[in-house]
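subagent[fold] <- orchestrator: predict structure for attached chain, return C-alpha cells only, no commentary.
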Amino acid sequence: MKINFKVMPLLAVICLTMACEQTKEREVASTEFTLDYEKFVLDNGLEVILHVDKSDPIVAVATMMHVGSNREKPGRTGFAHFFEHMSFNDSENVPVGANRKMIPEWGGSRNGGTWSDGTVYYEVVPKDAFEKILWIDSDRFGYMINTVTEAALEREKQVVKNEKRQRVDNAPYGYTDEIIRKNLYPEGHPYSWTVIGSLPDLQAATLEDVKEFYNEYYGASNASLVIAGDIDIEETKALVERWFGEIPSGPEVAPMSPMPVTLEETKSLYFKDNFAKLPELRMVYPTVEAYNKDEFVLEVLGQLLSGSKKSPLYRSVVEEGKLAPNVSSYNSSNELAGEFVFRVRANEGVALDDVKAAIESGLADFETNGFTDTQLQRIKAELETQLYYGVATVLNKAFQLVQDNEFGKDPGFITERSKIYQSITREDVMRVYQQYIKGKNYVMTSVIPQNTPELAISGAEEATVWQEEVTAMKANEQVGQGEEAEYEKTPSKYDRSEPDFGEPPLFRMPAVWTGSMSNGMNTLGIVNQELPLVSFSLSIPGGHMLDSMEKSGMAYLMADLMNEGTANRTAAELEEAIGLLGSGIFVSAGAEEITISGSCLSRNFEATLALVEEMLLQPRWDPADFDRLKQELKTSLKGREANPTAIASLNFTKLLYGDQHIMSVPTSGTLETVEGIGLEDIKALYSKLSPQGAAMKVVGDIDQAEVEAALSSLNSNWTVDAAQMNSYAIPENSTKQQLYFIDVPGAKQSVIYIGSMALAASDPMAPKLRFANEVLGGGSSGRLFQTLRIQKGYTYGASSGVPSRQTVAPFRVVTSVRANATQASLDIIREMLQDYGPGFTDNEVELTKNKVVKQNTRAYESLNAKLGILTNIDKYGKSLDYINQEQDALMSMNLEEFKSVIAQYINEAEMTYLVVGDKATQWEEVAKLGLPVTELDIFGQPIE
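subagent[fold] -> orchestrator:
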C-alpha cells in the first residue's frame, strides 16, 4: 500500500493531550498542547516511544523504517514499496501467512505504507493479542530475510504490479505524478521517479536485491517504534527489550540533507489519457523540505488561495470563469524537497488555456488585494479543531508520534507545530508567496481526453510514459506458494515461539441516551469526554428515494444547494461563519436520507447548531448557484464515465435492481436525468423534508440536556408533515445465470462484480449473513483475498459482503484482477462460491466467533464509529445494546445455521456476473466460463 502522510490534513494523525485539565466551562479553550509519551532507546539503537490510552482495550503498534523510494537505485525504482510487500510474507519464527491471516482472526487490523522518505508497518489489536503483535512485528523486522524464496519474490511482484495497474495504469490521470516528477526533479534526484516505480524495474528485482536492501536499511538503528494504547509502561519496556533487543543495529545510514530544486525554465507538457473524460491542469512549483517553518506557512497560503468561496482562485476559476467545479492549491513537503500545486479538473470541453488564464487572474487579485484578518483567523480556528481530531484513535496517535520522532527528531513536535500555526502572520504569507510562487518557474501538465488534444495548453510538449501492453499470461506470471526456504534459525537467548493470549478484553457497548422532540425528531447520543469535541449527524428520511426516475439527482443537487448559503448569508459568508467556529457542516444526499453532518469543539456546539438550523430552514435558492452546481454535477458525471470501477459498480447495481427501481439509477443521477432538473423541482423536493422520523445523533463531550437545549429552536421552527415515500418492488433473483461484459479498450485490469439480491440491514438475518461471510470475504484473512492475491498474485484485493440499506441490497463479490488473469479468476471465484457452504467446517465456526468478538473491541473507537452505532439503532430499529445481542446470537450459532445462511444468500447458481475490461483480449477468455455472455455499453445498454 502506498501512503503519503504529508498530504493528510495536519497528517490527520496527531497525538496530543491538554496541558491543563479539561474543563466543562465551554468558553474556556486551551491553546497549549503537549505530548504524553515516554521515550527510550535500546542498545541496538531502536528508538521506542510509549503512549498510554486506556479509553479502549486495544493497542496500536507502528514501526517506522527511515527508508523510502528516495534510497532506491536507478533501474530498481519501486523497490522500497516492493520490499514492504515482501516483509509481510514469512519470517523465521512465525507460521507461513500468519502476518496477513492471523492478525484479522485475532480481531486486529494491519497494513503498511511506503512513500518517498519512509516505510511504516502498523497494527491495532485487542489488548490480549498485544504480545503476539510484538512477536510478529519483531520477527518481520529482524528475522525475515532468511525465509525469502524465489517463489515468494515472483508472487509478490505480481501483487505489486497489480497494485500499480489498479492505482496508476487503469485510472484516469494515473500517469500525472510520473510526468511531474520526471520534469520537476533532475535525473538522478531521489524524487525523480514515483514511489510505486515502473513495471520493468519491478520485474527485474532479484533475491540478491532484496537481501542487499534489507541488510543496508532494515537495521534497528534506522527505525522508530511506537506503542500506543491500553498498556503498562514498565511491562511494555520489558516486552520490547525481549522481542526487539536482539535485532541487529545494522550499518549506519547516512542522513540525507535537503535537496531543493530550482527550475531554469517553465516546462509545459501534455498527455493524452485513455481513461480521462475531462481535461486537467496542474502547475507545480518547487518549495521547501518538511519541518522547515515555511512548510506551515505555505500550507496556510494554499488555504487562502483556494480553500474557501472567498478565495481568489475560487472566484476566478469557478464563479466568474465557470470553468471547473473547484480548484485546489496546496503544499506537499517531504524530507528532501517540497511542491506547491495548483490543480484544476475542468468542465468537459474547456480549453486549459482558459483555466491557466483564470489562475493567473486569481493570483493577480491576491497580489493586489491580499486577504483579510478574518480569513486568516478562520484557518487558524479550523487548525485548532483538526488538532483535536488528530487524537481520535490510538493508531493516529501512533502515526504522529513515530513520524515526528523519525523525521522531526522530536515525538512531541506537535507542541511546536501548534505554536507555529498560531504565530503565522500576514507578512509571513506574503513573503512565501513572493519567494516560492510569484514569477517563479514551474512544471505544468495538461492531461486531456485521448481525442481532444486541442484542449491542452498551447505550445505544450507531448509527454511520454511507458505503458504495458495487455498480452496472454506469461510463464513468469504463473505464480504460487512454492516451497518454504531452508535455513538455520537465527540464535536467540529468548524463546521466540508464539506467546499466549493475555487476559481477554471485555468489550462494553457504550451507553446510549435517547429522546424525542415535540416536532417528531428523535435524539440519540453517546457521551465521550476524552476530548472537547462533538461529532453529529442529522438524518432526514428521503434522499434518493424521493427522486423520480426521470429526474434522478434532485436530492443530490438539493443537498449541494443547501450548502450554498442561506437567505441571510451568501455561500462565502456562511462558510466563513462556520470556519470561524472551527466547525464543519455539510449537507449530503444518500440513497435513503438527507444528512447534515458536522463536527465542532464542544464549547461551540450551540453556535454550530444555530447555523445548521439556518441552513436547513432558510435555504438561499440562488439561481446562479443552482446553474453552477448543476454544471459541476454534469462534469462529475462525465468524469465517472472514465473509471472502470465506477462503470462496474453502477451497472452491476442496475442489472440487479432492474430498470424500474430507483436504486438502478445512481444517487447523483445521470447526464440525461440531471439535464431535466430545474430549480422549481428542487424547491418542491425540499418541501418534503420533515422532522417526522428524522434523528439528531450526537457523540462527544456533551450530554443529553445540552444537546436538546441546543435543538430547542429547531424543534419549534421545523414542523412539516411526513412525506409519502416512493415504493418500488425488488426484482426476484433470476434462475438463469448470465455474464455481462463491458468494454474499456486498453484496460490493464478487469473489474469483476458477482452477486445476487440478498436482504435489508434491518432484516434479523443480516447479522448472521455478515458472520457467515467472514471466512469468504472478510478482509485479508478471507478466502478470496488469500487465494486471488496471496496464492495466485492475480489481484491487489478481493472481498465480499452486503451494503447496509433499508432497501434490500445485494450480496456481491468484488475484485480487480490483471487482465490476463480474468478467466482464471472467474473460475476460482465460481468454484469457491459453489463449495463455500458444503465445505464450511466447525473450525471455521469457531474462527468466525473469535474474530468478530475480538474485532468489536476496536471497531467502535472513533467518534464517527460511535455515530455509526446510533445510525444502526435509529435507522434499522436495533436495540440499545444490539452489539451485545448480536454477539450472543453469534456465539449460539452452530455449523448447520452457518450452512443454512450460506445456502440461502450465497448461492452461486443465482448470481449475476459482470466483467469490465479490454474486450479485444478478454472476450473469448470470459466466454470459457460457460455462461451466456451479453455485451453492454458503459451505460448498461445491450450492444447487438
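orchestrator: received. Logging for downstream: The first strand starts at residue 17 and ends at 18. The domain at 739-936 is CATH 3.30.830.10 (Cytochrome Bc1 Complex; Chain A, domain 1).
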